[in-house]
Design goal:
Elements: H1 2-20, H2 23-40, H3 50-73, H4 84-88, H5 92-102, H6 106-117, H7 122-129, H8 133-154
Length: about 160
């Protein structure tokens, strides 16, 4: 469990940050996912699947956070300018992509982030999203088309 946390917590936090665009919420979501795994660790039969479980928990936590914020404020906040992540994403092209990603429907955004940011396979993306492989594949294709359209409109 400790090795899994050390190896993947930062990457999962970055995943959550891209999805919810709030550093504190992203850290909380990842922490909650690992706490959930810890509570169930005695029941884990296949430790190789633990990363897939935590990744799915992070995606689901982001969905919950997104729904909560959307109903409370109507939209997601921008990434704080003072965060280390925003410094890493300083180029205008990356900012444009992040703005366009934020404008996508949640399922398309999740599919693109999982598939291309985390470089998961179609099957792993589907597992993390809790959908069939075909649904993940079509969400990815629609997301790419929407992202392309949004980026062309911006330029």
């Amino acid at each position: 469990m400790t090795a899994l946390y050390r190896e993947h917590a930062l990457g999962l936090t970055r995943l959550a940050l891209v999805l919810v665009r709030d550093t504190q919420a992203a850290e909380d979501i990842v922490q909650d996912a690992f706490c959930g795994l810890h509570r169930r660790w005695d029941h884990v039969r296949d430790t190789d699947r633990a990363l897939a479980y935590v990744r799915s928990a992070v995606v689901n936590g982001c969905r919950s956070e997104f729904r909560r914020r959307k109903s409370a404020r109507g939209q997601l906040p921008d990434v704080p300018a003072s965060s280390a992540e925003s410094a890493a994403l300083a180029s205008e092209e990356r900012r444009a992509v992040l703005r366009a990603l934020a404008g996508l429907p949640a399922r398309q955004r999740e599919a693109l982030v999982l598939r291309y940011y985390l470089e998961l396979s179609e099957a792993e993306t589907a597992t993390a999203m809790g959908v069939s492989r075909g649904t993940a594949k079509s969400a990815t294709a629609r997301g790419i088309a929407s992202l392309r359209r949004l980026l062309q409109e911006e330029s």
